[in-house]
Write a structure and sequence with these properties.
26 strands; 6-stranded antiparallel beta sheet; single chain; alpha+beta; 846 residues
Length: 846
């Protein structure tokens, strides 16, 4: 075998994990390529093993003896002369459990362990194994091979040397398996069968340094061998429990009412069948019918017919049983029934959504037409203003000419007066008579009225305006601007733009984390990013805002508003600002959130659904108690329409000199989105259940660190038009859960209530909106798993009683045995909680 770093290789966990100061490691034993070529010891010098750096998602696979698959790369540090040094390490993001695409394991069941195959799916059967098997297996029982089966670990209350595993058919219908004889199986798989026998360490020491070791054997059939088995057209078997056979018989032969009566009577007779002698005989007959194979179906049908004709089904008894069963059915399947009811309204909701979209487009067109008319009106006013100014200039020139002429005449009159005065002195009465003669002429030439005598020293200072009016709060230019939004923006195109911005900025987030963040922001007003420092929690909202703006970022439109929380914050005034009642002025806080909210409100009033998305990042939000400064937003964000208002100050206390006088009551725009970042350490406050009930909590891992290609300090620009509120609304869909997921959620409800964190209506509505809005970026099953990790598991904490711990074990068992979802994100989180509680087992209350 020649080692290839781009080819998957099958490996076995060689030891239990061990920790360093920063990370957790483990060693792997190379076995073979995916095509069956065995690993050569010469290709793996020194200890013949492979380094493996564990992550939070792969730690659950690090059990000694377990089989995994991954691709190799050269080790960061390799010293050829050191015996414990390994040349290769596994790419930590490529490690996954061995699945049916690579191969499956062959397990042997003792011939006397079961009497028939139906007992494999009966509740309570388990096969004890010292090492974990593969996810899909074939079972060797007596002379034949059967499968494939899915394996599931049976959760036990205490640790034991071996683990129990249950089995269920891996076929999509959950019933079908294949049967092959010994010869056919050996002929089809002899070239593609891998027998493994290695020694593994049962503790965190190397295999060569410990005495606590064990021999581990695995019998593998590779994927090519399994395909050859299917090509033989093997015999199909249906593993169906006896109660389901009776139900199928009743469904084919009886009416719906009679089928319900039959099922209710079977359940009742199994519990209380020993009360009467006749019923006891009937119960024994049913018990014998349940233990027979498929060849005795005729006898089973006879028992069913005899049961219906026996006369034990009294009318009163049937009515009571039917009522009890109906109540139990409704209680256990509330979400499923609600999902089916709402699915019948899907077409109507789609039509309503379409009409709403058309209405929003019409509103956007009307707003655009209104803006165009306003722009044209401003142009016409500017032309008229220019003409008026020209006319005023002409009139001013004419006035200046008249004034110059009047001053010339006054000069002539002054000369005449001086001459008259001189003559008066010389001629006396003769001059006076002449002056009296020209007096009327003087009045006609000087039409300005006489001003009374005034003494400026007596009149005092001139009055001045004492009431100064402040300049009104001005809106940015982009609030009333227009943008081309006629063409629809597809969600897939925007998400590709988002990923390009992240990659160009030098970040390496997991694709799943990018999908979870986008869907959470799209479906909710408040999203929280958690995790250790350095995972990119504060950078992710800025990257997302840049992708939302697109080309609009070059027109001075702001991106994500960053608000840094101070540990001293006590109420909403620290976040928004305060009113000084002495001078009647409102002083916004340094966070800038008040102005940001006003901008969002004014743009939505001016442009409607054509407004852009306003993203706010509250960084380190749990440095102070969230309910102290954010309580108003927690209550208002859930409302709609005019009820989404926040009282910043009373307008009556604002004076004329306050520029924000008209902004005391702010309406939160539907285009507003909040993103919070939190750390979980001794410097922060614990998030309350009231807060967690309203948010999607996304835990980021160290995969979000800046890559080698960039420092992550500069956010890359994006192309394309800006994302509007109409685009986000068209991507969101409020629909019911699929029936299968609703049933699974009903199964989880009792265990959540047992742990003291019941499923609230708010969380249920949020899960339905998230799952219904995931396509085409994510399947509904994966979205449901993500919601369990983001909305349900964060509220599981403070388990202090054995009853609560039993509820956690029950929830783990449901997720492990579920065929609807893999729960790859949720199960590790629950197992981490379980391990923490196991270490504190002595502290638990009864």
């Amino acid at each position: 075998m020649s080692v290839k770093t781009d080819t998957p290789i099958i490996m076995m966990v060689a030891q239990a994990p061990f920790e360093t100061d920063l990370n957790k490691f483990c060693k792997l034993i190379p076995l073979a390529d995916a095509d069956g070529t065995k690993a050569e010891p010469s290709d793996f010098p020194n200890d013949g093993e492979i380094w493996w750096m564990l992550t939070a998602h792969t730690s659950r696979l690090a059990e000694p003896g377990q089989l995994v698959v991954g691709t190799l790369e050269f080790a960061t540090r390799y010293e050829a002369h050191v015996p414990a040094s390994s040349r290769y390490q596994v790419d930590r993001e490529s490690v996954q459990p061995l699945n049916l695409d690579v191969g499956l394991e062959v397990l042997t069941i003792a011939g006397d362990a079961i009497e028939n195959l139906e007992e494999l799916v009966v509740r309570g059967f388990r096969l004890d194994l010292s090492t974990p098997p593969t996810r899909a297996v074939m079972l060797h029982w007596r002379a034949n091979y059967y499968g494939p089966f899915n394996t599931a670990r049976v959760v036990a209350g205490a640790q034991s040397a071996s683990q129990g595993y249950s089995f269920s058919p891996a076929h999509a219908d959950g019933l079908t398996i294949y049967e092959l004889d010994q010869r056919t199986f050996d002929e089809s798989t002899h070239k593609f069968r891998l027998l493994v026998q290695e020694k593994v360490s049962l503790n965190d020491h190397r295999r060569s340094e410990t005495y606590d070791s064990s021999e581990v054997r695995h019998d593998l059939v590779l994927a090519a061998g399994y395909e050859r088995l299917l090509a033989k057209n093997p015999h199909r078997l249906i593993i169906e429990p006896i109660d389901r056979k009776l139900q199928r018989f009743a469904k084919n032969c009886l009416t719906r009412a009679k089928r319900q009566q039959l099922k209710q009577l079977l359940d009742e007779l199994e519990i209380t069948g020993r009360e009467t002698e006749n019923a006891q005989d009937l119960v024994q007959a049913i018990g014998r019918a349940k233990s027979v194979t498929e060849k005795q179906d005729a006898s089973l049908n006879t028992v069913a017919e005899a049961l219906l004709r026996s006369g034990l089904l009294g009318e009163d008894r049937i009515a009571k049983a039917e009522q009890s069963f109906a109540l139990k059915y409704v209680e256990e399947r509330t979400a499923e029934l609600q999902a089916k009811v709402e699915q019948s309204l899907t077409s109507k909701r789609a039509e309503l959504h379409k009409l709403e979209g058309e209405q929003k487009r019409e509103q956007a067109n009307l707003l655009k037409e209104k803006a165009d008319r306003l722009a044209q009106l401003e142009k016409d006013i500017a032309v008229e203003r220019k003409q008026a100014l020209q006319q005023m200039d002409a009139e001013k020139e004419d006035f200046l000419r008249q004034k110059a002429e009047l001053q010339r005449q006054q000069g002539l009159l002054r000369e005449n007066l001086e001459k008259v005065t001189k003559d008066l002195r010389e001629a006396g009465d003769d001059v006076v008579n002449r002056f009296l003669t020209i007096a009327p002429l003087l009045e006609a030439m000087n039409p300005s009225p006489r001003r009374p005598f005034t003494d400026e020293r007596m009149s005092g200072p001139k009055e001045t305006a004492t009431d100064t009016v402040a300049v009104e709060f001005q809106m940015p230019a982009y609030i009333s601007g227009t943008s081309a939004t006629n063409n629809a923006l597809q969600e897939e195109a925007f998400f590709e733009r988002f990923k390009e911005v992240v990659q160009a900025s030098g970040f390496t987030f997991r694709p799943l984390d990018l999908q979870r963040f986008h869907l959470s922001v799209k479906c909710g007003d408040l999203t929280v990013l958690g995790g250790p420092s350095g995972t990119g929690k504060s950078s992710l909202p800025a990257l997302y805002a840049q992708a939302l703006l697109g080309e609009e970022a070059s027109r001075m439109r702001p991106g994500c508003l960053m608000v840094n929380v101070n540990p001293s914050w006590m109420d909403t005034r620290d976040l928004l600002g305060h009113m000084n009642t002495l001078d009647g002025r409102f002083y916004p806080a340094e966070s800038g959130l008040f102005q940001y909210l006003v901008y969002a409100q004014k743009e939505h009033e001016a442009r409607g659904s054509a407004t852009g998305i306003y993203l706010t990042c509250i960084d380190e939000m749990n440095l102070s108690q969230v309910e102290h400064y954010f309580s108003d937003f927690m209550m208002v964000l859930e409302r709609s329409g005019s009820a989404r208002t926040v009282q910043c100050f009373s307008s009556e206390t604002a004076g004329k000199n306050c520029p924000f006088q008209k902004c005391g009551l702010v309406t939160l725009s539907p285009a507003l989105r909040f993103v919070g970042t939190v750390n979980f350490d001794e410097t922060t406050r614990v998030l309350s259940d009231r807060f967690l009930d309203r948010v999607n909590l996304i835990r980021l891992t160290l995969a979000g660190l800046p890559g080698v290609a960039g420092t992550g300090a500069i956010i890359a620009t994006a192309t394309g038009r800006m994302v509007t509120l109409a685009d986000v609304d068209s991507w969101r869909n409020d629909s019911a859960l699929p029936a299968e997921l609703g049933t699974l959620l009903d199964q989880m409800r009792p265990h959540l209530s047992q742990m003291g964190c019941p499923l609230s209506p708010r969380v249920y509505r949020g899960i339905c909106r998230f799952v219904g809005s995931t396509t085409p970026l994510m399947s509904r099953e994966k979205a449901f798993e993500v919601q369990v990790a983001q909305r349900i598991i964060p509220r599981i904490r403070s388990l202090v009683t054995n009853r609560q711990l039993n509820g956690l074990d029950g929830l783990l068992q449901i997720l492990n045995q579920s065929t609807a979802c893999a729960f790859e994100e949720s199960i590790p989180l629950l197992e981490e909680i379980r391990e923490t509680m196991s270490g504190r087992h002595w502290e638990l209350e009864p």
